[in-house]
Amino acid sequence: MKPAMLRRGMNFWPPFFFAGIRVTHIAEDWRTVDVELRQRRLNMNYVGVHFGGSIFSMTDPFLMLMLMNILPRDYTIWDKSARIDFLKPGKGTLRTKIRVTDEMLEEVRAATPNESDVFRPTWSILVEDAEGVTVAKIDKTLHIRRRKDERRRLGG
User: Is the pTM of this model over 0.85?
Assistant: First the structure.
């Protein structure tokens, strides 16, 4: 799928649309995704700041999706776990810039030379308010491994 098509689709995906989450950019090479969360009555908690689930949701699928589109098809990539630290109450429009760097890709390749190798990196995503102050840090752990070569296994 092309990045622009995914961006448009995700902006109308009900969990994002109703939470006020908007994907503003997906790079053609899949290495950059920018997301914003606008504060609305539907995504505020009892004390008038962003609901924590919405803050997490704005980061949730992207590292996995980005790696699935960057790495060759012989990789299996899954979200394994996540942890969120709320550093400051989130108010107004929140933004995150999710990046896959050359260093991250080199880590994956070095850790998964064979199909028996499993790599579980934990990478951080920061969410900032309009002033650039970090309001949340999300640590995402992924499960990455190479798939078995079916042709070799079947003798073909």
Answer: yes
